[in-house]
């Protein structure tokens, strides 16, 4: 049974504001990265940890936030997330050196991990089944708009103040206002089951996942970091085994850190696989500005503006994906989105020398990405779970998306190096990258066809 202090509908508008504010950082950091590198006089490899460590924090923080929300209540966890985000922003704002700044980024990520998960869970809690797709897609639309406005605001802050730190100074008052609104309008809905936290499960899972993620990240420079990669893999495997054994032996008095019973369902396994495949596609955004810069000679900052086309497409695709879920079903939504991604990527692969064609095709590619990642997968995960572990189910999906984002650069970089000439990437290298995207899209279509869309997924209503 679910109980709350007052039976009020969750303030969806508040969750929307929270998503918009916290997701601006993802787009803004690409604009500020050059200035950050100059401030601390760091190499491009070191600069990659500004985003890489943030992703690691998201992977760790998301399942923890989802677990705590199901155990202690949405309001408490949501407020804790905002406090962490504020502290991370403060540390980044006052950072005297690079290491201190990275610490701030990690704390920020831990605070960001549960925002979208808790927002989607709140929407699924109140939305009618025939409107869940459109309701959930609003989070994708807001997140997409935030990713577009983030670089614009960061650029304005840099242009006016000449200091990237002031972006976080700008964010902190917004977070304070958001915290006060959340304190006032959120109810602490909890599950009446009186279970304790599985701290051993949290510790072993966090160490296992952190070790494996770091090993994957360092594998992009395999020869340089071989002596670190092997121990990290060993630690990750050992802690992963300990985690599984711990979860299997839990008593009824403790709440499992992850809902392992969901992993026994083929539909959920295929859904999180789709999450990982879809998440990997977002790594394209790392390479597109470089492709435009080297191929067409545009300045790096101007080259990054081509992502606006893909971003706008993803915003439109987010809404259309939700509409398809409600009108035609989840299989159609996933199949259409994956097909768009595959066909557009194939078209880009063979027209790389034309910037106008790339802008058009990348816009449609964005529609496919938005449709795939905004609503269908979240709705499936939410319907498969019971009300008391729905946040965990959505959190598991979100975690797999981040894992896909982490693994993809290694795959894309390897594919591009096959056609590099004397270490220099040319059109053939970028063609390989988009061919890999086509293969990922085919994998998404295959997984979609295998999901058993019946019973619990199609008919379950809370």
UniProtKB/TrEMBL annotation:
It is a multi-pass membrane protein. PANTHER family: MAJOR FACILITATOR SUPERFAMILY, MAJOR FACILITATOR SUPERFAMILY MFS_1. It is found in: Cell membrane. Keywords: Membrane, Transmembrane, Transmembrane helix, Transport. It holds the Pfam family MFS_1. GO terms for molecular function: transmembrane transporter activity. It comes from Agrilactobacillus composti DSM 18527 = JCM 14202. This is Major facilitator superfamily (MFS) profile domain-containing protein. PROSITE patterns: MFS. The keyword Membrane applies. It comes from the Bacteria. Residues 11-455 form the Major facilitator superfamily (MFS) profile domain. The chain crosses the membrane at residues 12-34, 46-66, 78-100, 106-127, 139-161, 167-186, 198-219, 225-246, 267-288, 300-325, 332-352, 358-382, 403-420, 432-453. The keyword Coiled coil does not apply. One of its GO terms (cellular component) is plasma membrane.
